[in-house]
TrEMBL record:
The name this protein goes by in its record: phosphopyruvate hydratase
Pfam families named among the record's database cross-references: Enolase_C, Enolase_N
Record has Cytoplasm as a keyword: no
Alphabetized CDD domains for the sequence: DD_AtENO3-like (cd22962), enolase (cd03313)
Organism (species): Parasponia andersonii
UniProt keyword annotation of Magnesium present: yes
């Protein structure tokens, strides 16, 4: 084929002429760069390659990272990881070979991306998120993504979402808003972990964490400042009372002093808030994670204290009394998983009291069937969204719609096994969740999310809206 025939076949002469004319009209100082960019925009982007690898999460446990390529560039994403909590969430595929990372390696999931998922997605338009996600769901053929692995599917789904935003030349949060049909972009109120307990820390505190919400901030930037200052005042309070060793941190970056009662922890946090002078502008939330210490129909608040275990059992009714007292004595606005994941009746009873937001985490596991049941039975009134429990961006958008239509609150959440990927920050803005829980204002993998929210607020400029008092949206 001659050069002229090649030019004619691909209509290159017309395309190049259009690009040159555009460069002239723009009076560009760098016509070569301008023409190059102009020609790139003239070509619809498609997925050309998907490559995965095994990396380590914040706990030093393997997870899946994906590079998705289009003719616009390379887009990287990684799957967060948590402690599996039951039969209702999507399945992380791990190898189970005890000789490799104690059985936690993810080579099979990586292989599934490189060999099966890549082949299925090459040639697809990255802006068509739902079609990409559905193609992977169809390829897997299982209800909980156990064949390919939710860790493999999610990493690809997030990478595709980033590629879609690049193709449309819009910020990631705007692309997510478009996918969901949202028009209101909102910076969420951060729930900063300040004290860690439960399975996330080595102290005797039964509940999993105490968090603070700077609801009274006027901007996200101010909320981050308020969270950081309170965190450092808390460090001083703990040091004064327990010594420097009390300032060791848990998996999410919260301090883990050797306290055994939730009131001890709340008193420390209350004192720290008092020292900042923010007082009424900062509220408190607790994540009980009650499933971890439910034995039969009782709750063992001493389950981490071997010498005391068995002496502090509480019935569901006694737990409700305890929560009532805590909500009266402290500025608590949200309680997560106050009861076992199958203890629907006590959650429902407690929610009906209207004392605070009641968040379902282990209760719901981001599972649409569980969410629908909770909505129909008025069990709780907020969803903790963990995207790896459901496995694709499209399904995450759908469950948020379910929750929002029921007038629930939504909390976009990190996992205990996190990476530097800041995707949930953009997700929380694009879906206007109103709340985000990404750990303490400490540790890089947690701050990646908070710092990305700073970038988004700066980018939105005068159009930036901080949820503040409308944190439940």
């Amino acid at each position: 084929m001659s050069v002229q025939e090649y030019l004619d076949k691909h209509m290159l002469s017309r395309k190049i002429e259009d690009a040159v004319n555009a460069a002239v009209r723009a009076k560009t100082h760098d016509p070569v760069l301008f023409i190059s960019n102009h020609l790139k925009k003239a070509v619809s982007s498609v997925i050309t390659k998907v490559k995965a690898r095994q990396i380590l999460d914040s706990r030093g446990i393997p997870t899946v990272e994906v590079d998705l390529f289009t003719n616009k560039g390379m887009f990287r994403a990684s799957a967060p990881s948590g402690d599996p909590t039951g039969m209702y969430e999507a399945v992380e595929l791990r190898d189970g070979d005890k000789g490799l990372y104690l059985g936690n390696s993810v080579n099979r999931a990586v292989k599934n991306v490189n060999e099966k998922i890549s082949e299925a997605l090459v040639g697809m338009d990255p802006t068509l998120q739902s079609q990409i996600d559905q193609a992977m769901i169809d390829l897997d053929k299982t209800e909980k993504k156990g064949e390919l692995g939710a860790n493999a599917i999610l990493a690809v789904s997030i990478a595709a979402c980033k590629a879609g935003a690049a193709e449309k030349e819009v910020p990631l949060y705007k692309h997510i808003a478009d996918l969901s049909g949202k028009t209101n972009l909102t910076l969420p109120v951060p729930a900063f972990t300040v004290i860690s307990g439960g399975k996330h820390a080595g102290n005797n505190l039964a509940i999993q964490e105490i968090t603070i919400l700077p609801i009274g901030a006027s901007r996200f930037e101010e909320a981050l400042q308020m969270g950081s200052e309170t965190y450092h005042h808390l460090k001083a309070v703990i040091t004064e009372k327990y010594g420097a060793h009390g300032c060791n941190v848990g998996e999410d970056g919260g301090f883990a002093p050797n306290i055994s009662s939730v009131k001890e922890g709340l008193d420390l946090v209350k004192e720290a808030i008092s020292r900042t002078g923010y007082n009424e502008r900062i509220k408190i939330a607790i994540d009980v994670a009650a499933t971890d210490f439910c034995i039969g129909t009782k709750y063992d608040l001493d389950f981490k204290s071997p010498n005391k275990s068995g002496q502090n059992f509480k019935s569901g009714e006694h737990m409700i009394d305890m929560y009532k007292e805590l909500c009266t004595e402290y500025p608590i606005v949200s309680i997560e998983d106050p009861f076992d994941k199958e203890d629907w009746e006590h959650v429902k009873h407690f929610s009906s009291l209207g004392l605070c937001q009641v968040v379902g985490d282990d209760l719901l596991m981001s599972n649409p069937k569980r969410i629908e049941r909770a909505i129909n039975e008025s069990t709780c009134n907020a969803l903790l969204l963990k995207i790896n429990q459901i496995g694709t961006v499209t399904e995450a958008i759908e469950v948020v719609k379910l929750a929002k239509d029921a007038n629930w609150g939504v909390v976009a959440s990190h996992r205990c096994g996190e990476t530097e990927d800041s995707f949930i920050a953009d997700l929380s803005v694009g879906l206007a969740t109103g709340q985000i829980k990404a750990g303490a204002p400490c540790r890089g993998e947690r701050l990646a999310k908070y710092n990305q929210l700073l970038h988004i607020e700066e980018e939105l400029g005068d159009h930036a809206v901080y949820a503040g008092d409308d944190w439940r949206q």
